[in-house]
Specification:
The protein is mainly alpha-helical. The protein is built from 11 helices and no strands. The radius of gyration is 17 Å and the shape is globular. The N and C termini lie far apart (43 Å).
């Protein structure tokens, strides 16, 4: 069993609450209220800014050039690709770049991103990558599951573009590389004593991801 699979197994309850949250089900069948998705989109843009900082930290924390290049590629993917795609997606919902940048950050967004950055500041590259894993790898898993649902990718689903972005080959490749790098770091640095600490980080980051969905879900019910 790979290191990432061990993390998922130990955090099975948290992982299920995150990957099968009602927000994601509403995205799949198109029933999610527009207000919920719009609030999520705005906060996710702010989230990406903070995740870019986390990848910049990963460059600093990298013990070797190969790790630095992997982190730098992740940083570029966020700043030069994913954020641009996000702006285009938001434009379809009537949200301009100014709307996104001026939006006040939600407590859930701040809690999650600060936790990831703190895990990286206090720990090594492996600890930071464990904290990043629920987002980077989890979105690929969620989108793959949603894309397989009836009518999820149909034109009548207003959220099919979001599903397509994360279920598509480019993002799936990003997630696969992140998982392979995480497993490689674990092969080098994990000890039985450390694994318990890393599982705790993974559980908390996954719980905070579920809170992020819950934030959007509540906005749609207000």
């Amino acid at each position: 069993m790979s290191f990432f699979e061990r993390l998922k197994k130990e955090a099975s309850a948290e992982w299920r609450a995150y990957t099968e949250h009602p927000f994601t089900e509403g995205v799949a069948d198109g029933s999610l209220p527009e207000a919920a998705f719009r609030h999520y989109l705005v906060q996710d843009y702010l989230f990406l800014i903070e995740f870019a900082r986390a990848y910049a930290l990963a460059v600093y924390k990298s013990p070797g050039l190969a790790d630095m290049r992997e982190a730098a590629a992740g940083l570029s993917a966020i700043l030069d690709v994913e954020m641009n795609l996000h702006v285009k997606l938001c434009a379809g919902w009537g949200l301009s770049p100014d709307d996104l940048e001026r939006a006040p950050p939600a407590i859930e967004m701040l809690a999650y991103t600060r936790y990831v950055l703190d895990a990286g500041m206090r720990g090594d590259l492996l600890a930071l990558k464990v904290a990043l894993a629920p987002c980077v790898i989890g979105y690929a898993e969620i989108a793959t599951r949603l894309a397989a649902k009836p009518n999820a990718m149909g034109a009548t689903n207003p959220y099919h573009g979001w599903i397509a972005e994360y279920a598509g080959a480019p993002y799936q490749e990003v997630a696969a590389k992140a998982r392979a790098h995480l497993d490689g770091l674990a092969d080098r640095y994990v000890t039985p004593a450390r694994e318990a600490e890393l599982i705790a980080i993974f559980k908390e980051a996954t719980r905070l991801e579920a809170d992020f969905w819950e934030m959007g879900w509540r906005a749609g019910r207000a």
